[in-house]
């Protein structure tokens, strides 16, 4: 099975694991420089967050907050990534992966900025949001999920937490609705649900931009 992992997926898996190990050895350095901080401080004389650095929109997706976090994301990359890389080609797949991750960060940042604008500027909740970074490849993984659901909608998935097979298109729709519900109701505090939604939306738009659709997926032989 492992010898059939495509090149970019393999490199992403290795990069994420290496960064995870390094960030656990020097967590202060990695999290202060490479995790994603909300760039804007609304209603504040200091408009831009000094914790934010431009490269964080990419580097944050290679960092993870724990073993369970990186395992779940890399499992999704491992299961769905190679099929999509074979279908899209390595270059487009890498571009797709990175842009969906950036889109996830931007949507989550927009919502965080709005939430902060509703808070008292010098309050503890306001500054907690300013200094709490986001990490993880989840946004890019949700981009991969929506690509799989659009290109191979009728493939039946057998999931560990689901007692019966479910078609990819229904799985992605249900998962997206759950993320929207969880983000709107504050379920699972500490999880950036709207970053996941951002990955889904960005991925869907990119598929249209690249001209990928279900017809091409139906003519593609998956491994």
TrEMBL record:
- Lineage: superkingdom: Bacteria
Signal sequence region: none
Q: Where's it found, cell-wise?
A: Membrane
Any transmembrane segments, and where?
A: 12-37, 57-81, 93-111, 131-152, 159-178, 190-212
Q: Which residue ranges does the record assign to the Peptidase S54 rhomboid domain?
A: 53-207
Kindly give the InterPro entries that the UniProt entry links to this protein. Peptidase_S54_rhomboid_dom, Rhomboid-like_sf
**What molecular function terms (GO) are annotated for this protein?**
serine-type endopeptidase activity
Keywords, sorted A to Z:
Membrane, Transmembrane, Transmembrane helix
Give a yes or no for keyword Transmembrane helix in this entry. yes
* Topology of this chain in the membrane: Multi-pass membrane protein
Q: Which GO terms describe its cellular component?
A: membrane
UniProt-recorded name of the protein: Peptidase S54 rhomboid domain-containing protein
- State the organism of origin: Arcticibacterium luteifluviistationis
């Amino acid at each position: 099975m492992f010898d059939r992992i495509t090149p970019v997926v393999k490199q992403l898996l290795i990069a994420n694991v290496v960064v995870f190990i390094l960030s656990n050895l020097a967590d202060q350095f990695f999290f202060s420089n490479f995790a994603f901080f909300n760039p804007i401080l609304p209603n504040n004389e200091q408009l831009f967050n000094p914790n934010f650095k431009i490269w964080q929109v990419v580097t944050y997706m290679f960092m993870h907050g724990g073993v369970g976090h990186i395992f779940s994301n890399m499992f999704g990359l491992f299961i769905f990534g190679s099929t999509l890389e074979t279908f899209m080609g390595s270059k487009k797949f890498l571009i797709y992966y990175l842009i969906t991750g950036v889109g996830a960060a931007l949507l989550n940042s927009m919502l965080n900025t709005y939430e902060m604008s509703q808070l008292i500027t010098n309050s503890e909740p306001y500054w907690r949001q300013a200094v709490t970074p986001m990490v993880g490849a989840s946004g890019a993984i949700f981009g991969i999920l929506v690509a799989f659901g659009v290109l191979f909608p009728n493939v039946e998935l057998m999931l560990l937490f689901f007692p019966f097979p479910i078609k990819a298109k229904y799985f992605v729709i249900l998962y997206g609705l759950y993320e929207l519900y969880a983000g709107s109701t504050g379920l699972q505090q500490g999880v950036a649900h709207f970053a996941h939604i951002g990955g889904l939306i960005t991925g869907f738009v990119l598929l249209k931009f690249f001209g990928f659709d279900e017809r091409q997926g139906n003519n593609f032989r998956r491994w």
